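TL;DR need structure tokens for one chain.
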Amino acid sequence: MTKNKDLESAYRTIEKEIEALNMMKSQLDESLGKALDLMQSTKGRVIVTGMGKSGHVGRKIAATLASTGTPSFFVHPAEASHGDLGMLTNDDVVVAISNGGESKELSDILLYCKRYGIPLIAITKNPTSTLGKAGDILLRLPDDGEACPLGLAPTSSTTATLVLGDVLAIALMERRGFSASNYKQRHPGGKLGAILQKVSDLMHTGNEMPLIGEDANMRQIIMTMSSKMLGCVGIINTDGELTGIITDGDLRRAMVNSADDELFARKAIDIMTKNPKVTTADVLVAEVVNQMNAKSITQLFVVDGKKPIGVIHLHDCLRAGFTIEEKPAQVNDNVISKVA
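>> reply
TL;DR here they are.
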């Protein structure tokens, strides 16, 4: 019986919050575009502020904006009244959040914005409130009550505020043509940073590449493979194009199948694997890990056209935090299509 009541409560909460989101969706108008114009064109930062639960959501909104190409940070309204107003400049835009629009702690920030001509975007359900009237642009929250059975705890209102913050962040990403590469630059650590790494981030280049000519003898092959310690050598023709590869496995097989005098008489072109598997510098490392795992190989030459520009080894990928079970990240490094 208790479980059924719990599920009924859960359904009511979810439905109530969905209703609030649908109401907010129906209220969206040209004010959204004006707010985005203001946030996109600002020479400074987007300063987000709010008190209580609005402040908690505001911190998340500021963090999302900052990580997706819009410089932003959160200012606590109470701290603003004790010196942090100095963080605001005339080049900034302020986004102030208050569900009812009457948070007393916001009064000093609102006054400061008016005094110094700092644009103010108000997020509230009440357009006639102090905040609603003070805003240069008003983004309305739904006035549909809370999911809380007492109608008191911020629930539906904070969900709507959170979604509205995501609406702003995503629209700005699309306007700016924010790409996966841009995203990676702001997320160098952890899983996000790793999964967005490209081959160019890990590959060995320049003198680290084990390269020899097609006419190289067995002694040169062994010396190059041993000194570069990547378990392979790349074979290039007179035009500097990659025509083959010799791995340590190829070398062992050649030794087993040849007499000593025959072995050392052979040249690189005689034992190399022609047309080897290759990759390019802009491919995601996660994708290359899968490719090497599927082909049971441990290294790939990186080419520009037909010329080698690097080598990536499976061990480098593993040290960077990838596993052989890693699936390619479903991201597009091309620029996100811009809003017309």
